Amino acid sequence: MLEHGAAKIYAGVRDPATAADQDVTPLRLDVTKPEEIAEAAAVAGDVTIVINNAGIASTGTGLLEGAFDGARRAMEVNYFGTWAVSRAFAPILARNGGGALVNMLSLASWVGQPLFPGYAAAKAAQWSLTDALRQGLREQGTLVIGVHAGFVDTDLGAWTDAPKISAADVAEQTLKALANDQVEVHADEKTRRVKAALSQPLNPQPRA
Ligand SMILES: NC(=O)c1ccc[n+]([C@@H]2O[C@H](COP(=O)([O-])OP(=O)(O)OC[C@H]3O[C@@H](n4cnc5c(N)ncnc54)[C@H](OP(=O)(O)O)[C@@H]3O)[C@@H](O)[C@H]2O)c1
């Protein structure tokens, strides 16, 4: 973002000591803690772009077994966390001319996932929220962007050897979307194929 001309960047992090980059201003921010969200919004009243990137897997919750705790946690961070931060910063974006809100979504926002159903459901909920925010913040001039990607090469996707794109690639595409007022990013080939297929009729599925 600095390379693209951002004057100042805040990094919302749970532990400010992990934001070692001299060019960013760390803000203590756990998106599940209302008091930290309120404090971040009080400090960062000059922002014009908010990126909701925080997200977790739904570890431990299988489709047919395992406690629901992991799926509940994913809903808490990915969905309610995004919602709470968006609420807190919407008036700030309005005061600063509209600006933009970017939500980091997924290919799993559109397609249920038997291997990680809780994560996919949280990403689907976050997608619905993104749509609602796009409509609800239109009048105040806020561009709301949903970024959809398949596997990205980060800690979250480390469990699988499936093909991945880099986080830098996703970031570049997102910055382009910001520059071009584009409401969705489809970051990789698989995501683009799935998006195109959403309007196709479902194939009849033979019974086993
Ligand atoms: N990796 C993929 O394949 C993939 C694909 C599509 C979409 N995404 C989405 O991309 C986003 C970034 O994920 P990633 O792949 O970069 O995963 P990651 O490497 O595991 O990073 C997740 C980030 O979320 C932060 N976070 C987790 N819980 C938080 C909380 N309660 N409050 C504030 N921050 C919290 C983590 O902060 P700490 O450093 O404090 O742990 C970490 O910085 C997520 O929304 C994810 O769903 C990922």
Bound molecules: NADP nicotinamide-adenine-dinucleotide phosphate
CATH topology title: Rossmann fold
Overall mean pLDDT = 95
Strand ordering within the main sheet: 3-4-5-6
Number of H- or I-type helical stretches:
5
What fraction strand?
5-15%
**What is the domain total for the residues?**
1
- What is the SS-derived class? alpha/beta
Low-confidence stretches: none
Report the count of strand segments: 6
Mass-distribution shape: globular
Explain this structure to me?
This protein is α/β, with parallel strands linked by helices. The chain has a single domain, classed as Rossmann fold (3-Layer(aba) Sandwich). Helices cover 38% and strands 12% of the residues. The protein has helices at 34-43, 69-95, 117-136, 167-179, 189-197; strands at 10-13, 25-28, 49-52, 100-104, 143-148, 184-186. The termini are far apart. NADP nicotinamide-adenine-dinucleotide phosphate binds at residues 13-14, 18, 29-32, 53-56, 77, 81, 104, 106, 149, 151-152, 154-157.
What secondary-structure arrangement, pairings included, does this model have?
Blueprint: E1 10-13, E2 25-28, H1 34-43, E3 49-52, H2 69-95, E4 100-104, H3 117-136, E5 143-148, H4 167-179, E6 184-186, H5 189-197
Parallel strand pairs: 1-2, 3-4, 4-5, 5-6
Helix pairs in contact: 1-2, 2-3
Bound molecules: NADP nicotinamide-adenine-dinucleotide phosphate.
